[in-house]
Design brief:
The protein is α+β, with helices and mostly antiparallel strands. The chain is built from 11 helices and 12 strands. α5 packs across α8. The mean pLDDT is 82.
Length: 295
Amino acid sequence: FAKNLFGYIRKNSETSDVDAKRGKVRVGRCTLSNCELSDPLQLVLGTPKPSCVQNYLFQEKKRAEIEKKKEEKKAIKIDHFALYKKGAQLRGRKFYWHRDPVTANSAPVKDKVGETEVILHPIKAGAYGEFNITLLGVSEYELGAVLEALCFSDYGGAYKIGMGKPYGLGSVNVDIESVSVCKDSERYSSLSSRIEETSKELSEDEIKLFRDNFKSKTSKTINTVNYDDNQSIRQLRIITDYHHRPDNADTAYMSLDKTSLDNRLKGFNTVTDFKEKQILPLIEDVRNPATKEKR
């Protein structure tokens, strides 16, 4: 579905043949207003490491085993890599929690920039802008999918874009201002219709109908009674919920700096933490900041 909507380019490593499909989505340029740069930040940014099985493989039995040994105060020696050999299930999709952003006070620019460090110039909060998304030759189902994907704000959600996402940067809100559609049969019926680009603006009820039809059809496809009750959708709503984001300490990253505030709040010991990595908690197990309970 994603390949059909967004297109792809793939190259055969053996024959060097290229197979490509043109996407149906065009995203226009966004010009920002009220745009001010904040003080520069010096941060360490990495890339996913497949060997970090604690993040990428589903292993709830291992988690239970570790917790039991902790209670019994026994030595913990777990062979996480054995899961690769057994064909363990992948955890899911990669997302970033919304966090209170790092500031120049906690990540000042130093005289020397390390090999793994970058200097960023973030935009201050409050910038806004407009952009157009054009869909070409999509079905009603595909239109509903795109509309649903652009309506995170209905659930209190926000998107993450750009660099520095692990440090709380890049959280943005998107609102749909208007949606106009034109059937291909009408658009290509004559030259004048192409030039005039006649289209119909959808009402809020019509937009909701497209979204509801997408969710209904998807529920049948994945054999779920209610789209909103699907585990993947529930988890997506939790991790993109900007207004109820967890405390920074509850989504802390391991740091090379033993004096890191995040690490001290979590009680991490940097040396043993990288040697014996913790299994990444499930999204539902991260505490709700309002109730301090699991979600």
